[in-house]
Specification:
globular; four-stranded parallel sheet; 37 helices; alpha/beta; zinc
Length: about 800
Amino acid sequence: MRGEDGVREFLISSFDRVKTRYLHCGYAKELYVSSGLFEEWQTIITEVPPLLFLSYSLLKQHGCPNFIGKLELKNYVEKHMKGQIGHSILPSIIDNRLDDVISRNKLDDLHIHLNGTTEIELLWRTALERPHAFSNAIKPAHDNTLVKELYGLEELDFTQNELLVRLRVAKMLRSVLLDCAVNDKEVNQQTLKDINQRAEFDRLYSPFNKGEEDRFAQIDNDCSIDVFTNHMGSKLITPLVKESLLLIKLFSHLEKSKSENFAQLFYYYLLIKCQLMRLVVQQTQFYGFDQFQKITVNEIRSDVERDYEARFSQVANDNAQSIERLEGRFAPNKKLVANKERLISILQGYSRYKAGFSDKDNTSGKNIVELLKADKNYKGRLQLSLIAHFIKQQDKRAAKLSSMKEDEVGLHNLGWCCRHYQLRNDVEKTRRALMALHQRYTDLPEYLKGFDAAANELDAGADVFAPVFRRLRNDGYHNFTFHAGEDYVHLLSGIRTVDEALRFLDLNHGNRIGHGTAVGIDPELWRDRIGKRVVMKQGERLDDLVFAYHILKKADCSGKVLNLLESGIRELTNKIYCVAPALEQKAAPTQLFSFEYITPEDLHEAWKLRYLDPILAFDLKSKCSHTIRSEIIDEILKIKELRAVKPRAFKLFERYHGIHDVNFIRKYNELVEVDIDTCPVEQVFTKDILRILQKSILQKISKKQMAIESLPTSNLRISFYESYSEHHIFNWLGVGDEEGMEVPVVLGSDDPGIFSTNLRNEYAHVLIELDKRLPPMEAIAKLEQIVKNGKIWRFENQF
């Protein structure tokens, strides 16, 4: 901005530059982004809501409607906004090939979380229009450490309370700005004074305080966009259309009035809006699941996402009719009543969505039996399947041991059970609650199609969920997927976790892996981005080396490679498992436990036992044989057989869980620093060796006739990638730099609201990169195969 220019000139020139560079008008007069700039555009809309740019472009294309003339305003919406702004506002590229593939086949979103879907505009409107509900919704996250970190990253000393103050200010600014724009008047100095007083009052007391709101009611309620749009039906005048009309009017007044006061208030209003966006959308300068998790736990979406109808309307992509099947993930509860309420809420929202689409009566008042039976043969737009996903959680008791000294650990033996004891019990209770719901409502499988486990995979692995997945399979369910290889400390760990998901969960034909980044990413790219040192648990390092040793030995790698791995394995084994830590002062440093020598094969056999339920294996709950269910008795008998056949492995499995001495857990969790450049063992893992490990897992997935759910934008924001061209999906499609990595791939949008994307745009990003590698028709053929994969690997009936 030049020194002589004011805020007004800065705003107009900025929006004009973005419009000119990125947004163009297509044949049907819809706005689109050119393919060459689409990735750049995707980065911009992580920080600035795209509706701002589209509204400014609409103003430039079609002018500003007369708000006073009801018929003129309605005609403007029908002619210029319908089909372009509805329940979603994410411009795409224009490509006849892509449009043809979508119109003929329709898309299936096979990896999308229902929470985390809502776009910024609906969040913004809800925060301003329902201030008390919004405030109450986010309060539970006030003391959350991750949430405090998120606010601190946004601005020094920024807090949840300050956010609420600024949202109150934005609500007042919104009313004042619209009043000035509609009535063509200047900003009143007394109004500015009142706004400042209100902001200071909120900082001293409680934002959105009901007892004091009347003092400032005249500021909040003077002018609202709803006054001008009440004559139009909800199908035409969606919340996003209202928001766009407001912005069009404000931009128009900004240009015509030449008022610097108005410009400054408008600028402040937009700054607050963009700041809220940065708290709910993954930013490009951050990566890693930890940063993503800060957004998922801040509760900013919780109030608006109580209602599911808007999310189904958003995902359906308005008039595009691009989505045929939505496999929406939701987190079940360990209580039957809570699960029933959650399902009712989801199905009522879906029912209202269908009613709005087909002009049927609203069915939101139906009970769960009626909702489950309603429209079984519904073949309209957006067919819904539900995927229940268990939540991975940290083993806090095990983590606490890591900070203790050896002599402090002894007392904890009395209360110790096994790894993730609480989580194992919780997911089992959740399974039973879901099965009880199924027994009560036999039509439940019409919607509940599969199971998953999600959240931070560094907190819990596939072994924790293996017993529950096994019992679900015995209950008759067979559609399973699992988040694995998405985030990892070391690439070896990520590859291993994918293999553990396949092995421990017995994933097979028709099942899927979520993300799987670790078995696709270029090892050299990972090394370049991770830095020179990796800090990880020494027990996980040992698991990684044992896993790699087993695969590389079968692959006939050189003796030097295997010898180096054996050396690393032996060193870590002695530190963790061989010498009982409590006996170190009495025993010789080389003393081994009951058997003479622990081999890599022993460790591998013990690792393979982790699919067992340790609660049953080590009799950690009192049992009465006459009350134990038959499938549990079968598990116990199987465990007894394995204990007899593999005593050495079972002993190591016992120590892995710290059954008789929790010092083994402490030793396992001790941190070790791995120098990527100088560690002798690390030198084994060249790019070629890591590719062997990746390919071995990919071949297993293909042989099992499984697919991987690939989520390009999610991976770009969370993983180590800086551009879509680096994404591993192109190796999986057989058009990358590495041969022999082809595997069936399906696409998903993951958390569309958090990543500012939708499924069509995920396909668009993939197509843009395919066009750089293949002739045009070969590129679209590859893309169409992904669409067909979605039909093949989507979860159909369970039974």
